[in-house]
Amino acid sequence: MTEIPVFLYHSVSDDPPSWLAPYTVTPAVFREQLARIADNGLQLVPLRRLVAALRGGPQLPPGSAVLTFDDGYADFYWTVAPVLSDEGLPATLYVTTGALHPPGGRGTGSLLPPAPMLNWRQLGTLDALGVEIGAHSRTHVPMDTVYGKRLTDEIAGCKTVLEDVLGHEVVSFAYPHGYSGAEVRRKVAQAGYTSASAVRNAFSSPADDPLRIARLMVRADTPPQVFDDWTKRRGAPTAPFHESAATRAWRTYRRLRAALGRPVGGPPRGRGQE
């Protein structure tokens, strides 16, 4: 079978801010989902192994899956990391650098609403523990609605900041809201990233685009049966597939709103994320 589940989480918490609650699972549910992944014979592998396979390297073992987390919420440090450490599981954490802050201080600013975020010291600890740290832009702006120096700063500037703090190269990127476009992906490659994750609510595959890796978003309202189907590699499309007319129309609308100074930040209903 060629379907590769790449799971996308945001927050794992019992008490998230109201705006984040739809994108949050409780610690108990998270543990249940990890157990379901194992019970159905999936093997969690580091993202870099999937990327290597997509770029012509060694193929993944059958039944491989990947864990990813977006934004950089503080619960990753306090809740997720201990679980991953106990189970010996790999994961990639994509962080929005403007939302992180120095201990006791404030971040440089992002479009994310207020929420408890990681600080830079915690990020360094996670990196030392073996969590792969990836970039998720500076401000969490939809990448296909900005251009020129702003786009470069969101992509390359984010990479520079992370590398300066962590002391090593950062090669993984994730598009805020999953949105990219051909020019954005070109800029990501030029900045030196070897992979970038979208959303698409689909399985990845050996034929997937390493600069547009498909992921399955796990939400608070993801039914247990749907998650079980994903772990059995069914119930979702498999990338690559052609962009729908609805996705192209949604991008045009968002770009128009951004040009008018009234950007739309979140995804449309359904499978509209790129």
From TrEMBL:
Q: Give the EC class as a word.
A: hydrolase
The primary location reported for this protein is secreted
Q: Which domain of life is it from?
A: Bacteria
The alphabetized UniProt keywords are:
Hydrolase, Signal
* Keyword Signal belongs to the record: yes
Q: Where in the cell is it found?
A: Secreted
- MF terms (GO), sorted A to Z: hydrolase activity
Gene3D superfamilies, alphabetized:
Glycoside hydrolase/deacetylase
What is the official name of this protein in its record? Answer: Polysaccharide deacetylase family protein
EC numbers listed for it are 3.-.-.-
Q: Which CDD domains match?
A: CE4_NodB_like_5s_6s
Identify the InterPro entries for this entry. Answer: Glyco_hydro/deAcase_b/a-brl, NODB_dom, Polysacch_Deacetylase
Q: Coiled-coil regions in this chain?
A: none
What are the residue boundaries of the NodB homology domain, all occurrences included?
A: 63-274
